[in-house]
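Data availability (excerpt). The following record was deposited with the supplementary files.
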Amino acid sequence: MKSTMNVSKYRPFPTVKLENRQWPDNVITKAPIWCGVCLRDGNQSLYKPMTEEEKEKYFRLLCDIGFKEIEVGFPSASVTDYEFVRRIIENNFIPEDVAIQVLVPAREDLIKKTIESLVGAKKVIIHLYYPTSPAQRRVVLKVTKEQAIESAVRGMKWIMEYSKKLVGTDITYQFSPESFSCTEWGFAVNICWAVMEVVKPTVEHKIILNLPATMEVSTPNVYADQIEWFCKEIPSRDKLIISVHTHNDQGTGVAATELALLAGADRVEGTLFGNGERTGNTDLATVALNLFSQGINPKLDFSNIMAIRKTYELCTGMKVPPRHPYSGDLVFTAFSGTHQDAIRKGLNERIEKTNEPWDVPYLPIDPKDIGRTYEKVIRVNGQSGKGGIAYLLESECAIHLPKDLEIDFGKIAGKQIDALCREVSSEDLKGMFWKEYVERNSYMQFVRYNDIEIDDVTCDCNLVVTVGGIERFLTGTGNGPINAAVNALKKFRSDLVDIVDQAEHSLREGSNAEAISYVKTAWSDGEICWGVGIDKNSTRASIKAIISAMNRK
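Predicted structure:
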């Protein structure tokens, strides 16, 4: 088939000529200022925007997580947004330490309506945006650079004038050169500086300059270069809060955000789980938990991420993909045998090293820290190995297989799982194990047993079994009950050499607990055969295990 992909219509995005680049050697040491834009940027991307009730529920969620700045809507563009802003102000739903942010373009009538929506609010951020990229100036607005600067300045002057009506309100002004990522470097600085001259920010009362990657057009390192270059070139850096707002067109929104923080950004705008226009915004949960994994307090609480996800899905109608970082159903799940074995060993090591830094293979953070469990860390299908099978039996059925028995059962179970062509549960595996080892009685069945201690080192035993429905009475002498039973059974099966390994444990706690015994037997033809027995008496459990091995042989 002939390709219709025409690569000649594209060109590489220009890089930044940055002298003495600093960001690659920098380290993030603290959380940024977070601004959740789920109720505006996220909401406008939904095929069915949230109702006022859903927006209120979501707003409360963001407050509970710990967001101190929340963009609550575009009051001049939607009746629902306007009424929602009024609702949360008039009903005192906004915590004292939370600032609500509203978005508005540089149009006087829309600015006037936006300011009206904010009357009575205690803390607000008024967010003016103006498209600045060459394509938007040429195609959408049909303006020159000079006209664009005039419009942005005029828009901020209107905001400053109308916001005088907000008596007693703590106001922060924010300006976004929309599509900053596509804008000429020098022009981005010029239009921001012109807006700053209107606001006249101070060190105590800064202006937010939000530099969006409204559309990803380059690799994240180029965006980081843009941010570092801007921070060096813009005057009065100490009077600014540099904010970033990245989209995910090329799948690198989180990376672009993190590199921008290295490059000097102070603040991050984004949404929970990355919901936003086209391929979405940067996912604030991922950025925050990436910081958490590096020992940095993100100052956002995701300790019950699945409850947060449930509210998100309920309010937005969107679904979090199963492989989404931290919150997806399968992100702490391993099907591969090598991964399962490593996770199992790492978790077992943690039992002895609970006070040491987290270092478990394939698990970047402890799932328990975000309200998840180990229950589904390891799941078993045809791609899994003995380690995963043993882990499920151990963690969910209290069956602790000796290493060699893991290998033995792993081969047997693997064939059965392959044939099923599906994921299997711990109960499925237990059923396979019982059928293969515990319930192997088609040849010989245990009936009863008693032993007589002759002296400190010698024991006689009387063993009754059935073979083909006929009872057989076997006797033997040995250096203990199990050895005596082996010698009794040898009289029936002379090719049984001996027990070469044995382990046992209780299946549950308490006086009525059953013992499970694992016995590895050697045979005269060189074969090794495992057997398993269960009984409230550990000696009888071991004898049943020997008979299980004989039946399997």
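Summary of structural features: The longest strand covers residues 496-506.
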